[in-house]
Amino acid sequence: MQLPSVLLVEDDAFQRKAAETYLSSHELKVTAVENGAQMRRQLSRSMPDLVLLDVQLPGADDGFALARWLRESNTRVGIIMLTAATDPVDKVLGLESGADDYVSKPYEPRELLARCKSVLRRSVAKATPSRLERVRMGGHVLDLTKRQLLDVDNIAVPLTSGEFDVLKIFAENPNRPLSRDWLLETTSHRARDPFDRSIDLRITRIRRKIEPAADKPTVIRTVRGVGYMFVPPTE
Fold first, then answer.
1. Which of 7, 19, 67, 229 could share a disulfide with 97, CB 3.0–4.6 Å?
2. Angle CA 127–131–132, to nearest 5
């Protein structure tokens, strides 16, 4: 199951474990490390969607230096600074280092989760490269610039704004299972009620428009226990 990935860099063992446990219980895939060296090694394996970076870290690099290095390496990854400092200058330094947000310690776990989701939404919004304008979806093409879905005859298929938003998210995340909750929060900017079936209804309507056989979907596939995944054509 591929949930939004978070790399937590925190040298305090208790705070690291507490934050990792809480965020992991709210549909985030969390990897926790304790210093800059471990952070660099982890990033060499894979780039997460979001990095939570403690300002006061042991070793040669503090959080500000690591944030600058990370932002120079990747312009899309979300960065949140974790700081015990109350001096607004430190917060400004964090933002100037390339961070998207900061959370002051001690923090409420719910506040940290809310900040994570907010930055993840913004990261998704800027995830599509400017050159990505048209994406093939089965026999159809999604035109991201004109916000249109075109059929095999290049005729626009009617789409609601909500349906386009879902297709855009899939276009930005090919071959990646996306949870129902994350899809709803990202496209509707609200938390999902346990009985909310709006994403499932949107997917059903979308499938009727783009799938060769809506009852046997091959473009927007169901991932059991997770949600849905867009599978681009291979030919």
1. 67
2. 60
Say how many C-beta atoms besides its own lie within 10 A of residue 178's C-beta.
22
- Residue 117 CB partners (closer than 8 Å, separation 6+): 185
Residues 67, 98 contacting (CB under 8 angstroms): yes
174 neighbors 230 (Cβ within 8 angstroms): yes
Instruction: Kindly give, in sequence order, each residue whose CB lies less than 8 Å from that of residue 137, ignoring residues fewer than 6 positions away.
Output: 149, 167, 170, 171, 210, 219, 230, 232
- Contact between 146 and 133 under an 8 Å Cβ cutoff? The reply is no
Q: Residue 89: how many CA atoms within 13 Å on its side-chain side?
A: 1
Question: Which pTM was predicted?
Answer: 0.55
What value does the mean pLDDT take over residues 10-31? Answer: 95
Question: What is the chain's length?
Answer: 235
Across the range 121-149, mean pLDDT stands at: 77
- Tokens at residue 129, please? 């490269």
**Alpha carbon distance 52, 230 (integer Å):** 28
Asked if residue 53 lies in contact with residue 66, where contact means CB atoms within 8 angstroms, the answer is yes
Q: Tens digit of pLDDT for each residue in 38-59?
A: 998 888 777 789 999 998 888 7
Q: Output the six-digit token pair for 15.
A: 């705070």
* Chain centroid to CA 174: 13
Phi, psi values for residue 45, rounded to 5°: -85, -45
Q: How confident is the model at residue 32 (pLDDT cuts 50, 70, 90)?
A: very high
How far apart (Å, rounded) are the C-alpha atoms in residues 47 and 70? 10
